[in-house]
Each structure stands twice: as structure tokens, then as C-alpha cells.
Design goal:
Elements lengths: L3 H6 L2 H7 L5 H10 L4 H10 L6 H7 L12 H24 L4
């Protein structure tokens, strides 16, 4: 549960941006299309100074009805950026490959 004190430590615009995460199903699909593992995601976020485990990424990709959770705002912002980068890179790769 997020307390008022926790919310106050994350600037308003960051909280708003973090709320714009893709759905858990789309997060999973983006990762799979990019052919990266949950550990790859966690490792990249750790390199950016955010303590994340492979298990956390697993829970972020589960629908809430199945017990999934959203990352905290500070983590959500970097996670969203990483997902956007993966999506853009995957789109570049697809357009660069000739159709069969």
C-alpha cells in the first residue's frame, strides 16, 4: 500500500507518467517480441540504479486478477521507458527484414 509519505517523495508528473504503463499482457508481449528474458529486463533496470529482480518482472507481467502488481512509480517510469525502447527496436528490426 502506498502511503502519503511515499507518494510525496515521487513528483506528481512522475506518478502520472508511471500510470501510463501498458497492460500486463502487453508488457509480456513486448518483452517476448524483443526476445529478452525477465532477467534481462531486471538486469537493465538494475544498471539504471533500480533494485529489481526477475521475480518482480514476472509479477509486473501478470494480470491483476492473477495476483499481478504494478511497479512503484520510481520503477514504473524506468520500466516504461525500457518497454518503449524495446518496442521501438523491435519495430525497426521488423521493417528492416524483407517480407517472405
Amino acid at each position: 500500500m502506498t502511503t502519503t509519505r511515499q507518494r510525496g517523495s515521487v513528483p506528481l508528473m512522475q506518478r502520472i507518467r508511471s500510470a501510463r504503463l501498458p497492460s500486463p499482457e502487453e508488457r509480456l508481449a513486448i518483452r517476448k517480441r524483443a526476445r529478452v528474458s525477465r532477467e534481462d529486463i531486471a538486469r537493465e533496470l538494475r544498471a539504471q540504479g533500480i533494485a529489481v529482480t526477475e521475480g518482480a518482472v514476472k509479477w509486473w507481467e501478470k494480470p491483476k486478477a492473477e495476483g499481478g502488481v504494478d511497479p512503484r512509480p520510481d520503477k514504473a517510469i524506468l520500466y516504461r521507458r525500457l518497454l518503449e525502447q524495446l518496442q521501438a527496436e523491435t519495430a525497426k528490426t521488423r521493417t528492416a527484414q524483407p517480407s517472405a
